Amino acid sequence: MVSFIHGLDRALLNQEVNNVLKDFSEEEKANLTLYDADSFDMEQMIADCNTISMFEDRKIVLVRDPLFLYKSPRGNEKAEAERKMLEEYLDHPSPFTELIFLWDEQNNPSSGSNPFQKLLEKKAKNIKTKPMDELGFQGLVKKDLEKNHIDITKEAVQVLLERLSPDISAWHKELEKLVLFDQKIGPEEVELLVPRQVEEDAFALTNALMDRNLKKTLKAYSDQLYLKHSPMEMVSTIATSLRRYYYCLYLRSQNYSNAQISDLCSLSEKQVAYLCSSGKRFSYERALYLLNKLAEVDQDYKTGKRDIQLALELFFIEATR
Predict the structure, then answer these.
(1) SS3 state at 59
(2) Are 212 and 321 in contact (CB under 8 A)?
(3) How much is the pLDDT for 172?
(4) CA 73 – CA 259 distance, rounded (Å)
(5) Collapsing DSSP states into helix, strand and coil, what is residue 264?
(6) Which helix (H) or strand (E) holds 10?
(7) Within 10 A of 135 (CB to CB), how many other CB atoms are there?
(8) Domain 203-319 falls in which CATH fold?
(9) Consecutive 10-residue runs of the chain (321 residues): their mean pLDDT?
(10) What pLDDT score does 200 carry?
């Protein structure tokens, strides 16, 4: 069996690996062979898969974040030879080896359309993890708090949820701190222990604008000012975000695949997946409307009609009506 496990959250990826290996004994898991980006060699890996274990009836080979999945191999004769070797193995996999390709797309995003990725998606068991939605993530947080017997007030739970993004790996790190805290946890303790998850780009602000949510827009705007981003910088970054949404959503409406959109827009497939996923509740017409309104803000500032901060804040009000 060959499995291709990939996605954006390391915790979900590890969970899927455990699901694949649930029928293996602890002894078999202890003899797992690991290849990573630095140690991977296609010919050696395939030879390893085809070699019978001296100690167990079955063996496990795990290939973690191989370079060929996120570095474009096109025009490379060695890469093409390795692709053919892999395809031959996928057509006739070893009956006693569980081969797992594990790809963390968050930390190792693809640089574009990739023949190895397409090959694995087609011929291996393709397991694509999906990011948890907000409601599911909130349920997980509350369940983890209860399971670990953390003494926390309802008000503190609400503050905690406001400070977290739906990232299970990041949540587990924060959970470790809460577990070690041996006193009752209120809102003040949460504010001290759990840092606020401030977006470093304009997507939070852009999403709030496209959702017509003035409260969230002003909150994201305040976060950007806190990060020392000037109003003029925000005009530029919002425009960039809106253009990306417009192109991705329009091309998706024309039935283009993520890989095709990635090539046309010079974005990684991870970025395309994020924009198309976040943009399901938006439309490309909405993105275009906001781009035109933002151009008016820029024009008003450059002609001296309005102060840039006032012009931007009036734009937020008008755009979220």
Answers:
(1) strand
(2) yes
(3) 87
(4) 15
(5) helix
(6) helix 10-20
(7) 9
(8) Zinc Finger, Delta Prime; domain 3 (1.20.272)
(9) 88 88 85 84 92 85 87 71 92 94 80 80 91 81 94 93 80 90 90 68 75 87 80 86 88 87 77 75 85 88 86 90 84
(10) 44
User: How many angstroms separate the CA atoms of 57 and 169, rounded?
Assistant: 34
pTM, full prediction: 0.54
CB 13 within 8 A of CB 24: no
Cα separation, 220 vs 200, whole angstroms: 10
Q: For the chain, first and last CA: distance in Å?
A: 54
DSSP secondary structure letters along 95-157: TTEEEEEEEETTTS---S--HHHHHHHHHSEEEE--PPPHHHHHHHHHHHHHHTT--B-HHHH
Position 124 scores a pLDDT of 94
Using the structure block, give the residue that is written with the tokens 């993520």: 258
Task: Could you please state the CATH topology (level 3) that the domain comprising 2-128 is classified under.
Answer: Rossmann fold (3.40.50)
Structure-derived torsion over alpha carbons of residues 183, 188, 190, 195, reported in degrees to the nearest 10: -140
Residue partners of 77: CB distance under 8 A and separation at least 6 = none
Residue 199: the pLDDT is: 45
Rg for the chain, CA atoms, rounded: 24
Q: Which residue has the tokens 């359309």?
A: 113
Strand partners, 92: none
pLDDT the model gives residue 191: 85
pLDDT at 202: 56
C-alpha span between 127 and 101 (Å, rounded): 10
* In the block, residue with structure tokens 């959250």: 9
Nearest to 282 by CA among 244, 311, 256: 244
Specify whether the CB–CB gap between 312 and 285 falls below 8 A.
no
Between CA 142 and CA 144 the distance in angstroms is: 5
Give domain limits for the chain: 2-128, 134-193, 203-319
| Among the listed residues 91, 130, 118, the one whose alpha carbon sits nearest the alpha carbon of residue 11 | 130
